[in-house]
Amino acid sequence: MLAKNGENICAYDPKGENLARTGAYLKELGYYIITLDFRNVGKRGDFWNPLWLAYKKYKSGDVDKAQEMFTDFINVLAEPQRKNTKDIFWPESAASLAAGIILLLAECAKPDEMNIASFARLCCQDNMDRLEYLTDQIPEDSVAGMNLKGIKTSPEKTKQSIYISLFSMISIFLNQQNLVNALSDSTFDMEDIPKRKTAVYIITPDERTTYNFAVSLFVKQLYDILISAAQESPSLQLERRMNFILDEFCNIPKINDFPTMISAARSRNIRFFLVTQGLRQLYSKYGEEESQTIIGNCSNLVYLYSRKLPLLKMISELCGERYLSDGRTRPLMTTSQLQRLDKQKGEVLIFSGRLYPYVTQLPDIDEYEMFKNYPEMKSPSSQAKEAKILSLKKLIEEIECGIRPVPFTKQEESYVDKIKSKSGNSKMYDNLQDELERRFDELFGGDC
Asked: Which pTM value belongs to this model?
C-alpha cells in the first residue's frame, strides 16, 4: 500500500521475510533498495558507518549537532549497562570517557579513519597510556578535555573500573571483525534518503539481540536527517512521507527521545508503525509515563491476539460498553472474546482515528496473488573492506614533532604542511616522516 502511494519506507525486518516477499515488487516500482543485513554481516547487503554523518557535521563547523549525534551513539551502547546495574556511576563514567575519546577521534582522524574500528581501538587497554598522554596536552576547557581529564584524575582503582566498564560497552566491536568492517564504511548516503523513493530493510537475527543496537541507532539518525530536511522545506514537512515500520519494537534498545520523536513526527510527514507483544515490554523499556505518551500518539491501533491481562483489559476498556435491556452494561468486547479472534480467518480488531472499533479480516501476506508473480529477493552479496584505523602512536609522533597541532587548539598550519605546499610535492615530507617514525621508535618503541 505504501509503495503504491510512492511513500518512503524504513522497515525493521528481523527475519528478512518482508524483503523476500516485497523487495522485487518495490524495485519494479522504481524504489532504491537499501538492505542492512546483520544476519550475514559484512558479507551481504549494504554497509553503513554510523559515525560518518556526525564527523561530517563536526568538520563543517556544526559541532553542537555533531556532539548530539555522538551522544546518541554512546547512549545506545551504554543502555544495556545502565539497565542492568544498580550503581549508575560506572556506566555513566564509561560513557563520559567514550564521549571524550570519540571527540578526540573526530578532531584528529582523517576521513577514512573516522569509523567504528578506530573508536574501538582507541578504547582498548593497550592505548591507555597514550590516551592519558594526549589528555595532558589538550586544553582543559574543551569538551573532550573535561571528559578525559575527569577520568584521568580519578583514583587508580576507580579509573581501572571505569575502563573495564568501557571495554564491556564496546566488547562487541572487539570480537567481531566482520561487524566492525561493515560499520566502518558506507555504501549509501543517508542524506539522500528523503530525496528519492527509498525502501530500507534492516535484517537482524531474531534468535538473539546482539545487533539490535544498530536498529535504534539507524532509526534515530535517519529521523534527525528527515527533521532537518523537513525544516528546509517551505511547507516544513517532507515532500514524500517516511514510514518507519518497527516490528518487535520492544526488542530493540531504547531510542533516546522517542516519545518526543513520535509526538513531532506527524506534522513533518513522518509516520511510525510500532509492533509490540504487550504493555509490560513497553513499560519495561520506556517506563510507564513515556509509554503512555507513545501509546497516546498512535491514532490507530490493530489488535491481533494476546494472553496478557493488562493489555486485554486496556483493549476491552477502549472498546467501551453496551447497555442491556435491563439497564445494566457489559463490555463491548470482553477479555475472553479478545482471546478468541480467529487467526485462520485473519480476524483483527481495529481502532482507527475517531471511528468506533470494529472487527475485520486481514489475509496473510502470502494470500496476495500479486506477490506470487515476483521472485524472492535477498540482500546482494558484498564484501566489507578492512577498516583503516587511526594510530595513536603516529598521532602523538606528529604532535611532538610539530606536524600536527595539539588537538582542540587553533594553531597555525604546521611547518610540514607549509613545506609540502611550497615544494609542490610530497617527497620532502615523506623523507621527514620516515625519519620521525624512526626516532619515535627509538624513544618509545612499540607498534600502533
From this structure: 0.86
